[in-house]
Fold this sequence. Notes:
The structure is a homodimer of 453-residue chains. The first copy, chain A, folds into two domains: 3-195 and 367-452, Aminopeptidase, CATH 3.40.630; 197-251 and 297-364, Alpha-Beta Plaits, CATH 3.30.70. Chain A is built from 15 helices and 18 strands. Chain A has helices at 3-9, 11-23, 34-51, 117-137, 160-166, 168-171, 214-217, 224-233, 256-263, 269-276, 289-295, 335-349, 374-387, 401-410, 435-452, and strands at residues 54-59, 66-71, 80-86, 106-108, 111-113, 144-150, 175-178, 190-195, 197-206, 212-213, 298-307, 316-317, 320-329, 355-364, 367-368, 392-396, 414-418, 432-434. The longest helix of chain A has 21 residues, at 117-137.
Amino acid sequence: MSVTDYLRQNRQKHLDELFDFVRIPSVSAKSEHRDDTRRAAEWLADRMREAGLTAVELIATTGHPIVLGEWRGAPAGAPTFVVYGHYDVQPAEPLEEWKSEPFEPTVRDGRLYARGSVDDKGQLYLHLKAVQAHLETNGTLPVNVVFVVEGEEEVGSPNLERFLEANAERLRCDAVMISDTTMFAPGLPSITIGLRGMAYMEVRVQGPAVDLHSGAYGGAVVNPANALARIVAQLHDADGRITIPGFYDRVAALTDAERAQIAGLPFTEEGLREEVGAPALGGEKGFGALERIWARPTLDVNGLLSGYTGEGAKTVLPSKAMAKVSMRLVPDQDHREVERIFTDFVQSLAPAGVTVTVEALHGGAAWYAQPEGPIFDAASRALARAFGKEPVFIREGGSIPIVEVFRKQFGAPAVLIGFGLPGENAHAPNEWMSIDNYQRGAEAIALMYEELA
Amino acid sequence: MSVTDYLRQNRQKHLDELFDFVRIPSVSAKSEHRDDTRRAAEWLADRMREAGLTAVELIATTGHPIVLGEWRGAPAGAPTFVVYGHYDVQPAEPLEEWKSEPFEPTVRDGRLYARGSVDDKGQLYLHLKAVQAHLETNGTLPVNVVFVVEGEEEVGSPNLERFLEANAERLRCDAVMISDTTMFAPGLPSITIGLRGMAYMEVRVQGPAVDLHSGAYGGAVVNPANALARIVAQLHDADGRITIPGFYDRVAALTDAERAQIAGLPFTEEGLREEVGAPALGGEKGFGALERIWARPTLDVNGLLSGYTGEGAKTVLPSKAMAKVSMRLVPDQDHREVERIFTDFVQSLAPAGVTVTVEALHGGAAWYAQPEGPIFDAASRALARAFGKEPVFIREGGSIPIVEVFRKQFGAPAVLIGFGLPGENAHAPNEWMSIDNYQRGAEAIALMYEELA
């Protein structure tokens, strides 16, 4: 029996198992769900054992356990894949906005509605089913596989990096498979090959020692909120380019091939505009919207705070003003260098009369994979077979910190194959996963192992 | 016996009475002090009767009562003065910052420390003692006097305007005396002849329909916080002048005499800088700090809010951003016109990709009194006699809405003679009033009536 036949024959069974998985409210952020979260880990460990994995265990952390399981029966010299995923889910709140119970799987229009359905229980579990399909039909796999499934992804993976370091020997691998992203469009299999990096800064402007009466002092005292607005305004020019000296020095230009590839995707700017509900799109001149999101660095204010922000009028001349400003970075920008030149430039814009402090809160490198080599080739062929369409290579404008953690720890390429879909409400009420994608995703992963043989 | 002798002989008695007054925690903002606030009104009414006023009554409002009392024994054709003040006080919190109990009068270094001591119980009560001095020594006054003392000044005088309208006949007057301001410097009697007006605006910028992920959308969506910063930054030019077209058209230029008068005051910019604790002063080029605060219009951000303002990093591309922006106005600007040209200009600065809404929250005219005529002359001579120094004419950068209310209702000039002092902590812990000013203030007001005779 082929792996595809196996997966199709067991379609309902595998769906029922996923129903059981999403019924467990493994909300990592909430202490009231601590036992549920552990129960999800134990449930998953049991399913790993049933699937034929060995050395299955729960690794205790200061938070929720990491579930490990492996199959190491591949021929000598065969590569080792880590499959990373997470069994924890976002809180379901606001509950009143759910059309069906968040932890009671409900099928409507070919979609499985449940918290965690697509993020990440469904996308993770299909990997286990793909491995199981090989072990049950062929008794073997062409590669060694190690599942690393954490229960703290939705709370920032506070224990994962330390765990990977401490277990570097056991987890050494040639590739990391992650399905925790989306396809570019329904029916269009997609491999994510780029993520942007980040430099997240906080700018604090201090003027007078205390809040003043804007009547008694306004006109003679430099207002830190006005000063902050002037600083922020000077970070872009009229063409939407970032004005920090040296900011673009290391930015890899989009090649003609890359631009053509992006232009070939089924995408309209009007569609994006409607999706976000803004009167118009904007951004850096000379680039399309997808290019700007995926391959151009950006600078966005994430937060502004100063003075009185309640209802009505209060005549305060604020003593301080704060902006959170994050820059999304692209290859080959160095986030530490960006933090430094941002700080220097903002300081240079500070007017007399205020003191400006700049702090780097969080940063990380961009990531870009050349989609070349046998693993990407195998994944592409498998996706084409499972979905009847050649996959597209896409990027994401955001960051997935764990990709960088694996790269740093193992130097292993990450293969990001998403089976989610736009509009899936991953962190919102009425999260759903396409049942067809769950099935085809398992088939695609199983076929990828076949292609690797 | 002269009124001065009377006031000096009764100095301790009058101080003890003020002690009793400030012991009543008439905090108008707090419902738990509702009975205390009424008690203060009744206490004051009793003292009015003892002082020789007639028709003393508490006028009920939807909030705290207004205390009325009058003396109408002046010769036919004599002018009528309204003495306005308030018996309510600010909340005392934060209590832990008080060096002595806020409602237990304590004398240190010639200062009476208590909530309400200077704002406004002491400054109000000295007016009653001045009137009483005349009635007890001469049995008469050269003018009719009506005391209008409200209990809601610290909560925005919500009932006063309606009360004045409804009692316009009874309250018709030739001047309004208010002591609720400060002297320019210790020992330097001061008459306040100018207040700035105000146009308080709220600017709201809406971009996408909901908050977006700054990674997934940053670069293609116009960020409303960045857009707001650009708008605010464009409201001033490099010389600190406001760029709104037409903004300065009606601004009355400072005359050479006015500039000379301001320059003659005992003031240093370095002293102001130290007072506010900023690294430097700032503002419109070509004017000194006092000129900028008193006689030049200004534009200050009073509040800024957008996106995530908590601790740490959150990668939100905010859907909206808000700024509260108030302009202080000077003669002869029209606040309604300023509201309109501000709105038009801000709208003209809105970039594509966002929707900008501008709302006028609160506005009022500037006020400027030519310090001429018999009332100002009498007040000046009286202050010189009581303090041994010629009074100065000063302005305030802020607004006192009640002045405008009286002007509108009665067309009466306001005579603002403050007996507070810089640093008196009127709305802060450790509020105090100079006991010497309390005494000399009563003498000055009594002498003013003498001068008017």
